[in-house]
């Protein structure tokens, strides 16, 4: 038995390069339940990060009683992370929403029945459509639904209602990943797979604290580092993360300077001619422009901008230049920072210049944050069109219209679907008046919360919130619809490396809660949405029918699911797309033939100006002349929109902790996870703390031009001048619904309303703040974990442990 | 040639003015603010290049109508778009539309300078045009993208 709060990554199982990652089956059951007591094991996969670990849900007497990793799943080989092991308990939380709520005359939310709630929704929706047209409606969804729910919503919003305003909270997590892939390769689609970790001789983690964001993926990298022929590791992160501690080279640049650093790495690789010129010549376009752009970004110049040593930049470039098989990854340190898309593209460019793509151990993982974010992108309920179709391509739009049997003009495609920040802007100005929010919590997760709360609270805005819990956002709604969640409904979803899992219904949803897809279909039927022939839209009513419809939509596109079926997904544990009709084998990685989807008639996107986000048109894209080659796009570094100044001398960045997900709606309702990180903290570098007279545990106030928060200070190994706070903590488990000046704790009180010009991903990593001490902590440590990037330097007085209820049975290659 | 350079400077000066006006006016459209600020800074760089060229063509002694005066003059107070006003979107469309047209004028002026530089075999000016024309195209490309996104929200409402 292993305490998996104390040891989040579990028992090591080292393996050699090109070896097979040993299986280790992790099992956690309610205390007092033994494996032989379990009635049924129901096949599923984890939804508490983008890794998508295959697992079985244990059911006894109609209740979930535990989980067990699946040894036959290539994603995790039996392992589960702490969130997967304990997070399922939230399903049975006593404060689940069990009935719809509507706001009464008294201004309060009251429980009601579905008929009353949906009638209210439909009445408002119909009236507004009549009065103001489809552009009065917006649907802000999630990275948490299943394919079946997303695709149903895509058809209802685009083919039924006809609004262009749909986006997912994937805008905050994975929009840049998708956009960087589109700009470089012409289309979304993860080039590499997790199997490439087993083959790589060099791994670069750029702004990707994998040990906490995808803990099982880190277990795989750690097991390689502990085995024979370990990979060399380069980590770029302002914090002393667990991977950074294992890195051969760790760079901690000033927040907001990623592009300068990446351009300097490219500068050295090109100047020292350590690139694969034959590959570049044969399979890319744009090399001359790229070389010209990075020529002036010498290591010395970048060192000054990033506030790191030029020699360290050279060491990092050497490490990349020496690679025989380079796997590069990035996540929020890039995506939620300044010049996000431009920087993420340079990571693609490094691999392309080295010719390291499409071969074992060689590739790029532009990571996702959420478990089903990939499907938001594929089905087109974010800023994309279904099946990675191009909104500027009339033939693609006609395909969709034919598929749905609607008029092509019905489908809004005068631009890309509206991004989340613009949806909230339209709601603010009053042209969006019906906002349906599904499985996301913008009142905690969007930047500048005071503004977001003001927008949501407007009388003229009708807000529908569909969620399993009464979140901070739900408290501002006019109608709240209780949703069934993972384990209570059947559906499919796809992880960050294209692996599709079927998650079967294990237990009944509580009370009147209903699956998201069923709620959308109920709305569509009540709105009498029909196709050209008067048939109901969408035409399906079961998850499997929805999946079959999605297969047809994906057929012939890069994300081809048409060879899959529920039966196939039941017979295997995880199948990667593309899997076209007739396929028997899945492809481990894309672009093994170095043929990239940049044909103008096939590509998903014609690209953008990386500086302003201006859209390129078909003629511009044709002029690039990629036609099957990858596109090397350069971009010049520019300073971040907010930099430290006299009033706000520090840089503020937000991020995750291992033990929580999102706004803790599930993780805080699992006692092991809640205890491991029970309340907010802020991290300071010791030199900054000593300058301000702050000691571990002291209560401090961090303030920006937008707001302030108070939290105990944790002294960590962060770079000087940077203050970090986890963004998970809001107000639902506090007494008051919204914060006063003394009890504000949501990190997004401080963040800035700015976004990347290309991916439109908000900038959570760059805000100027002030720091002051409010009260002494009297020697009590901050409530931050001690076994993560939040660890204090030196000896830990009170280590993070879980206790008896955090014990997990690990069965390593047959031995307990 | 001096006149052509002066005309281009005048057009660029008007462009800066419009960029600043749009940025000042649409404070609640955060991408418009940041992009206009950035593009205005880039426009200043182009004006310096034009001024250097004008020096060589003997036009420097007559800076009227004087872009530097215009730039240093106190910026006229503009009616700021209000946070909750749907009509602000109409103003945004108008401002982006005129920004696009102004950028097109600047683009044409620079294109004429390029023609002149080729006819005169002026390599320095030719280099400047090659460097700066893509920057001017960037302004119109962005204004066009942005106005095309903003317009349907205004025009798409039933009468």
Summarize the structure.
Chain A is an alpha/beta fold and 816 residues long. Chain A contains 26 helices and 29 strands.
Please describe what this structure looks like.
The complex is a heterodimer of chains A (816) and B (159). Chain A is α/β, with parallel strands linked by helices. Helix content of chain A is 28%, strand content 17%. Chain A has a 7-stranded mixed beta sheet, sandwiched between helices. Chain A is globular. By secondary structure, chain B is mainly α. Chain B has helices spanning 2-25, 30-56, 67-72, 88-120, 123-155. The relative contact order of chain B is 0.16. Classes of the chains: A alpha/beta (816), B mainly alpha (159). Chain A binds chain B through residues 130-135, 164, 412, 414-415, 418, 421-422, 425-426, 428-431, 458, 609, 611-616, 638, 641, 753-755, 757, and chain B through 28-31, 34-35, 38-39, 83-86, 88-89, 138, 141-142, 144-146, 148-149, 152-154, 156-158.
What keyword list fits this structure?
heterodimer, A: alpha/beta, 26 helices, B: 159 residues, mainly alpha
Question: Would you spell out the secondary-structure blueprint of this structure?
Answer:
The complex is a heterodimer of chains A (816) and B (159).
Chain A: E1 2-3, E2 24-29, E3 40-45, E4 54-60, E5 63-69, H1 82-86, E6 101-103, E7 109-111, H2 114-132, E8 137-141, H3 147-161, E9 166-168, H4 175-185, H5 195-199, E10 202-206, H6 210-213, H7 215-225, E11 232-236, H8 242-246, E12 249-251, H9 258-271, H10 277-283, E13 284-285, H11 287-294, H12 299-306, H13 310-322, E14 326-330, H14 332-335, H15 340-353, E15 363-366, H16 373-379, H17 394-404, H18 420-429, E16 434-438, H19 442-445, H20 449-456, E17 462-467, E18 479-482, E19 491-494, E20 499-503, H21 516-526, H22 543-554, H23 566-571, E21 575-576, H24 618-624, E22 630-631, E23 650-655, H25 671-676, E24 682-684, H26 686-691, E25 699-703, E26 708-715, E27 722-726, E28 767-775, E29 807-812
Parallel strand pairs in A: 8-9, 8-16, 10-11, 10-14, 11-12, 13-22, 14-15, 16-17, 17-18, 23-27, 24-26
Antiparallel strand pairs in A: 1-29, 2-5, 2-29, 3-4, 4-5, 6-7, 6-18, 19-20, 20-21, 23-28, 25-26, 25-28
Helix pairs in contact in A: 3-21, 3-22, 4-15, 9-12, 9-13, 9-15, 12-13
Chain B: H1 2-25, H2 30-56, H3 67-72, H4 88-120, H5 123-155
């Amino acid at each position: 038995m292993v305490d998996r709060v104390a040891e989040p990554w579990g028992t090591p199982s080292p393996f050699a390069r090109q070896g097979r990652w040993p299986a280790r089956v992790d099992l956690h059951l309610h205390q007092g339940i033994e494996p032989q007591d379990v009635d049924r094991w129901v096949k599923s996969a984890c939804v508490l990060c983008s890794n998508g670990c295959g697992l079985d849900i244990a059911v006894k007497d109609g209740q979930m009683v535990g989980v067990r990793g699946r040894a036959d799943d290539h994603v995790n080989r039996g392992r589960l992370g702490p969130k997967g092991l304990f997070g399922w308990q939230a399903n049975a939380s006593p404060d689940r929403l069990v009935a719809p709520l509507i706001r009464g005359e008294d201004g309060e939310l009251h429980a009601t029945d579905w008929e009353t709630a949906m009638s209210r929704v439909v009445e408002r929706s119909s009236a507004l459509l009549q009065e103001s047209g489809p552009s009065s409606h917006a649907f802000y969804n999630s990275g948490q639904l299943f394919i079946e729910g997303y695709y149903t919503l895509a058809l209802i919003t685009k083919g039924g209602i006809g609004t262009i305003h749909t986006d997912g909270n994937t805008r905050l997590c994975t929009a840049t990943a998708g956009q960087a892939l589109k700009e470089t390769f012409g289309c979304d689609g993860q080039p590499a797979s997790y199997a490439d970790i087993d083959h790589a001789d060099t791994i670069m983690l750029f702004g990707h604290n994998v040990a906490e964001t995808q803990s099982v993926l880190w277990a795989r990298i750690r097991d390689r580092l502990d085995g024979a022929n370990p990979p060399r590791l380069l980590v770029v992160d302002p914090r002393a993360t667990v991977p950074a501690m294992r890195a051969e080279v760790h760079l901690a640049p000033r927040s907001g300077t990623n592009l300068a650093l990446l351009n300097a790495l490219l500068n050295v690789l090109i100047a020292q001619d350590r690139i694969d010129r034959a590959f570049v010549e044969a399979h890319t376009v744009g090399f001359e422009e790229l070389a010209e752009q990075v020529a002036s970004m010498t290591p010395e110049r970048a060192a000054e901008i990033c506030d790191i040593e030029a020699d360290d930049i050279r060491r990092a470039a050497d490490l990349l230049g020496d690679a025989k098989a380079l796997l590069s990854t990035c996540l929020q340190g890039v995506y939620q920072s300044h010049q996000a898309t431009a920087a993420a593209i340079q990571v693609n460019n490094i691999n392309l210049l080295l010719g390291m793509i499409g071969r074992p151990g060689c590739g790029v993982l532009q990571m996702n944050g959420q478990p089903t974010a990939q499907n938001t992108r594929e089905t087109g309920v974010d800023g994309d069109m279904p099946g990675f179709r191009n909104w500027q391509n009339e033939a693609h739009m006609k395909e969709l219209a034919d598929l749905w049997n609607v008029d092509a003009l019905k489908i809004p495609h005068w631009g890309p679907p509206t991004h989340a920040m613009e949806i909230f802007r339209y709601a603010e100005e009053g042209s969006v008046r019906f906002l349906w929010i599904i499985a996301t919590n913008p009142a905690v997760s969007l930047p500048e919360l005071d503004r977001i709360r003001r927008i949501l609270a407007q009388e003229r805005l009708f807000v529908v919130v569909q969620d399993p819990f009464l979140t901070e956002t739900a408290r501002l709604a006019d109608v709240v619809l209780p949703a069934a969640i993972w384990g209570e409904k059947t559906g499919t979803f796809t992880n960050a490396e294209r692996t599709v899992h079927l998650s079967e219904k294990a237990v009944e949803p509580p009370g009147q809660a209903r699956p998201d897809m069923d709620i959308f279909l109920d709305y569509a039927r009540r709105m009498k949405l029909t196709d050209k022939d008067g048939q109901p839209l969408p035409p399906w009513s079961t998850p499997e029918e929805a999946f079959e419809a999605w297969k047809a939509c994906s057929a012939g596109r890069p994300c081809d699911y048409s060879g899959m079926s529920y039966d196939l997904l039941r017979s295997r544990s995880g199948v990667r797309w593309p899997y076209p009709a007739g396929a028997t084998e899945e492809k481990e990685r894309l672009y093994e033939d170095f043929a990239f989807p940049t044909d103008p008639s096939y590509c998903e996107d014609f690209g953008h100006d990386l500086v302003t986000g201006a859209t390129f048109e078909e003629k511009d894209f044709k002029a690039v002349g990629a036609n099957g080659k990858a596109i090397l796009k350069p971009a010049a570094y520019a300073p971040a929109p907010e930099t430290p100044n006299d009033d706000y001398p520090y840089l503020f960045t937000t991020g995750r902790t291992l033990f929580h997900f999102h706004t803790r709606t599930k993780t805080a309702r699992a006692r092991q996870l809640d205890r491991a990180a029970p309340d907010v903290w802020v991290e300071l570098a010791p030199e900054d703390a000593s300058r301000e007279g702050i000691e571990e545990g002291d209560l401090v106030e961090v303030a920006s031009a937008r707001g302030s928060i108070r939290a105990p200070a944790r002294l960590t190994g962060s770079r000087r001048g940077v203050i970090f706070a986890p963004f998970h903590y809001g107000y639902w488990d506090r007494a008051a619904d919204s914060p006063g000046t003394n009890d504000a704790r949501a990190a997004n009180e401080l963040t800035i309303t700015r976004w990347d010009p290309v991916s439109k991903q908000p900038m959570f990593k760059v805000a100027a703040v002030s720091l002051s001490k409010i009260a002494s902590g009297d020697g009590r440590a901050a409530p931050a974990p001690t076994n993560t990037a939040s660890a204090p330097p030196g000896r830990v007085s009170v280590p993070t442990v879980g206790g008896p209820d955090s014990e997990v049975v690990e069965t390593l290659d047959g031995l307990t | 040639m001096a006149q052509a350079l002066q005309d281009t400077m005048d057009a660029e000066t008007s462009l800066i003015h419009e960029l600043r006006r749009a940025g000042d006016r649409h404070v609640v459209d955060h991408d418009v603010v940041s992009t206009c600020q950035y593009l205005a800074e880039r426009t200043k760089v182009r004006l310096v290049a034009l001024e250097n060229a004008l020096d060589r063509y003997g036009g420097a002694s007559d800076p009227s109508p004087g872009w530097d005066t215009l730039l240093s003059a106190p910026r006229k107070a503009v009616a700021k778009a209000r946070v909750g006003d749907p009509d602000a979107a109409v103003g945004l469309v108008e401002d982006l539309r005129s920004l696009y047209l102004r950028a097109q004028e600047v683009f044409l002026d620079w294109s004429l300078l390029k023609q002149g530089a080729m006819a005169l075999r002026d390599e320095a000016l030719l280099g400047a045009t090659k460097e700066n024309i893509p920057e001017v195209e960037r302004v119109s490309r962005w204004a066009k993208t942005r106005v095309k996104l903003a317009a349907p929200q205004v025009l798409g409402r039933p009468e």
